[in-house]
Structures are given as C-alpha cells and as structure tokens.
Amino acid sequence: MPDVITIGEMLxxxxxxxKYYLLRSGGAISNVAVNLSRFNIKTGIISKVGNDxxxxxxxxFVKKNKVDVSLVSKTxxxxxxxxxxxxxxxxxxxxxxxxxxxxxxxxxxxxxxxEYIKSCxxxxxxxIGMIGFKSRQATLKAIKIAKKTGKIISYDxxxxxxxxxxxxxxxxxxxxxxxxxADIIKLSKEELExxxxxxxxxxxxxNIFGKKLVFISCGKNGCYVKYKNVxxxxxxxxxxxxxxxxxxxxxxxxxxxxxxxxxxxxKDNYRKNFYNKKFTTDELVEIAKFANKAGAKAVMxxxxx
Length: 305
Fold this sequence. Notes:
The chain is of the alpha/beta class. It has helices at residues 28-38, 53-64, 114-118, 133-148, 168-176, 189-196, 247-260, 270-276, 281-298; strands at residues 4-7, 11-17, 20-26, 43-50, 68-75, 82-87, 93-98, 122-126, 152-156, 184-188, 213-217, 223-227, 230-234. Strand 2 and strand 3 (20-26) form a beta hairpin.
C-alpha cells in the first residue's frame, strides 16, 4: 500500500518543441506522485480521466513510473483535461486549459475507499481538484478520513488565474478555505502575495500559519521555510533552464520525500507525531535544500516531470 496518496487532476500537457507540440503527462497532483515514485516512495493517485486515448496515455505513464493507479477511474461523460503550455525565451511557462469541465472534476465520493486512505502516511491535494463540486466533495471526504485516522495532509494551492472564471475575490476565498486542513503547505512567493497580500519578509514577523510547516518557493532564487518562530532563506541552484513546467511539483515531492525520511513514522498517528516533533533549523534547511535541488533538476528538461 502507498506511503503517499495524491488526489486530484491528471492532465495531458502539450509542450512546444520548435514548430510542433509534444504530448506529456501533466497535472500537479500527478507530477508529485511520479516524482515521489522516482524517489522510491510507494505512491498512489486517486483521480478520474476520460475514456479516451489521452486518459489511457496518462494512466499508462504513471503506472510505468510505478505509481499505484487502482483508484484512477474512467468516465464516458467527460474528456481528459488538456493543457497547452507556452514557453518564453527564458523557459518560463504559461498555460491554456481546454476541455472544461474535464473528467478530473467529476471524481466522486464513491471513488474514495476509506481503507485505501487509511493505508497511507501522507495525503497530498491541490486547489485544482477543489474547483468542481463533485471532485471537491470527494477530496474533502478523503481529507476527513485522513485527518480522523492521523495522517499528515499537505496542500499546494497551485493558483491558476485562467481557471477563476472572472470572480477573482471568490477564487481567492475558495483557495484559502483549504489551508486549515493542511499540516504541510507549499506556496510560491507570487501565491503568497496574491492570496494573503503579503510579502515574504512579512512572514518573519507574522505567523499566519500557526504550527504548520510552510515552504515558499522563489524559482531560481531558492525558497524560504516558515515553522513556528523559525524563518529561513535557502538559496537555489544555478542551472540551465529549459522548461519551468512542473518545477514546483518536483519541489513539493522533494519536501515530502525528506519528511518521510524523518523518524516520525514509527507509530500509527503520524499527524500527532508530526506536531509533537520539534524540527531543528538544520532539519528544515536540509529539507529545503533537497526540495530546491529537485526543482532545479526539473527545469533542465522539457515536460512537467
């Protein structure tokens, strides 16, 4: 059974290559699962795809990467989500989503098996899986089971303004609703500013996240870690950037990998152990360095993984 379960979107990315587009596996939740599996972590994903060739491609890709897909279901009602990725001369990316509402938005509560959730140590989710009514209810069911059974929960808000459907303030409110469920949070500095109207330096004095473990990614400049009264900057790695797609997901996987390697998983109530543990500054820096390295490796090749 998996040590980490991710729940949310599996999407097909079309990535530019000269005059053509290459089909690649995408979706933040899927990317995290594959990266973790490549770190030799037992990983599973809960998602829904269309009963189409793109859905088959995504399932086969994550399965080939040794991610458990037993709870990835297919639907004939909606197509697999499709994303065109646009890259500028520096490899920075933007996205254009097609096929909304895509199949992943129709993950159903009946697709969530309590025994499967109970088998993991960490449950990871993102905000895109909270957009559709059905997928939101399904994800919340999984979160509540995880919380009740002492699992650690991680959250990536993964802000995509082109999915907000015009009402930016409501979009913000909806994404912020789910921070309360998370024990581990990953934000980009742009997301921190957008959601909380805060600069990174404000976190040095304001502890808006309480006892949660928070990482703020800053792209090529590295990241910050905020934990209770600890606030540290960890520089990034200088590499040749080809495509920044999926860098944050590799960074997120790096965080979860290093946390899994800590001695807090020797009892069933992992969440209680997590909050009882007093992370040292050295441990926090070590986690952040590894996450920075994972993110840096991700930008050196095309595609989200």
